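[AMINO ACID CHAIN]
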Amino acid sequence: MNIILWIVRLHLSTPVLNWKTGFIILKLIYEIYGMFPPLPEGVEVTCNQNDIQVQINRSVHAGLDPNDLHLIDKQCLPSSSNGSFINFNSALGTCGTLVVFSNDGVKSFYRNEIINNATNTTEFDIICSYIREPTQLGTGR
């Protein structure tokens, strides 16, 4: 299946110079990409600075058993589940997450899958993208 990415949100910061220390501070900037076809109704993905969170609405996906689901790394099971939601939370770069950097090194894409062990199929592809800006760590003094 070909996955086409589309930008959901783009947030750019401006450099801030600390006059006392001479440091220029640039925040890590990230943008969230979706997929085409987009995630199905009832699945929400939150791309945070340090982790990826997925919430699956069980009323929309009633046939899914949380005991059968895992990420690419079979040890990475849902972080929680109840009658309403199945939740996954994984730190960036863990649970078999694949990382690809753009040719210019500015963008990084983190991709994982929610796999159904009972049917041995990928239920959902999860992709987050982040924009990285260079940060000057000091003035060399």
User: Anything to note?
Assistant: The two ends are 52 Å apart (CA to CA). The CA atoms of residues 20 and 38 lie 47 Å apart. The longest strand covers residues 121-131.
